[in-house]
Amino acid sequence: MPEKIGIIGLGLIGGSLAKAFNKAGIKVCGYDKSIDSISSAVECGIFEVLTDDMDEFLDFNPDLIYIAVPVNAGIEVLQELGHKNVRTLITDACSTKATICYEAGKLGLNFCGGHPIAGKEVSGFANSEAELLKGALHILTDGDEASVEILKKLHEKIGMKVKVMKAEYHDEIFGVVSHFPHLISFALMELILKKDKNLLEYTGGGFKDFTRIAASDPVMWSDIFTDNSEHISNVIDEYIDILNDWKQQINKKEKPVLMKKIRHVSSARQCLY
Ligand code: NAD
User: Fold this and answer.
1) Which residue from 42, 53, 79, 210 has the least number of CB within 10 angstroms?
2) Are strands 161-165 and 27-31 parallel, antiparallel or unpaired?
3) How far apart are CA 197 and CA 185, in angstroms?
4) Does any ligand 1 atom lie closer than 6 A to the CB of residue 75?
5) Atom 38 in ligand 1: which residue has the minimum CA distance?
6) Residue 44: pLDDT over 90
7) What is the DSSP letter of 49?
């Protein structure tokens, strides 16, 4: 079990992980390239070291390095750690897994991919909280047996439930259940803004629920969409087929068919939470 964890990226997820590890009695240090993020993290007083200098961060000698930055920045960070010949176990929190695991393998790093299935539409350390991760699922991908065992125990210690899978399979699944829902939420907002932004005045609870995630961070989500483009693109095609089917039934005023379709999905959704 790691005793000192070094977190790279002190935003919503890095901050929440740091607070949860600190609460579990594990020492944490933090590195971020943004002085604003560091200033925000200083106030909570949980970090042994907080710096924008990678060498100072590595001098803390963490026995686990946890990367919690957007995926493209994550790859740059991995390259920097590779150049510095870091042998420490490294994991990450990025929402896509195949590219980052592949890059880590190419660099010969001791890496196991990770993705906490917890989050919110707001970013930054100020919005982080230890409780965000409690009870949530954590996915581990493509690590060796020993790394998976260490990371499994660590995440269970902070109240998470762990599942292990291949990075490519992770990206296929999360392309459907997470990336695509964000895309259609952004697209719905785009539709309204294109028609007439004054229409927003008439929106109610349904619209609010559906578009909560459209308030998410542009860097994070453009990274996710471009990194997982193939899987997301396949889901878009399937969804267009489904929408066309609904359109046809609506145009034909096929009420019994529409009722059957709605009953089918509505009961599945009602049983879900
Ligand atoms: P965030 O915007 O809240 O924080 C990112 C932090 O990383 C910022 O403080 C930023 O300054 C820092 N950063 C960016 N590039 C850096 C670099 N090159 N070196 C050092 N620091 C750098 O983002 P977040 O919501 O915490 O997301 C972090 C990662 O976690 C992303 O990869 C995201 O896909 C993943 N994730 C997010 C959520 C969510 O709901 N927000 C959920 C699960 C996983």
Assistant:
1) 53
2) unpaired
3) 16
4) no
5) 119
6) yes
7) E
Distances (CA, A) of 31 to 109, 153, 177, 235, 254: 19, 24, 31, 36, 58
In this structure, what token pair is assigned to residue 268?
């599945």
- What is residue 228's three-state secondary structure? coil
234/191 same-domain check: yes
Return the pLDDT at 169: 98
pLDDT in tens, 241-256: 999 999 999 999 999 9
Same domain, 144 and 121: yes
14 lines ligand 1 (CB under 6 A): yes
> Which atom number of ligand 1 is nearest to the Cα of residue 96?
34
- Structure tokens belonging to residue 111: 């890496």
Query: Ligand 1 in contact with 120 (CB < 6 A)?
Result: yes
State the pLDDT confidence band at 181, using cuts at 50, 70 and 90: very high
Range of the structural domain that residue 183 is part of: 170-270
Query: For residue 124, what is the domain's CATH number?
Result: 3.40.50.720
Q: How far is the CA of 69 from the centre of ligand 1 (A)?
A: 3
Counted domains in the chain: 2
| Complex ipTM more than 0.90, yes or no | yes
Work out the average pLDDT over 123-134.
97
Q: How far apart are CA 247 and CA 8, in angstroms?
A: 47
Is the pLDDT at 273 greater than 90? The verdict is no
Q: Ligand 1 center to residue 41 CA distance, Å?
A: 14
Pocket of ligand 1 contains residue 16 by CB under 6 Å: no
CB of 12 within 6 A of ligand 1: the answer is yes
For 186-239, how does the pLDDT look when each residue is reduced to its tens digit (9 = 90+)?
A: 999 999 999 999 999 999 999 999 999 999 999 999 999 999 999 999 999 999
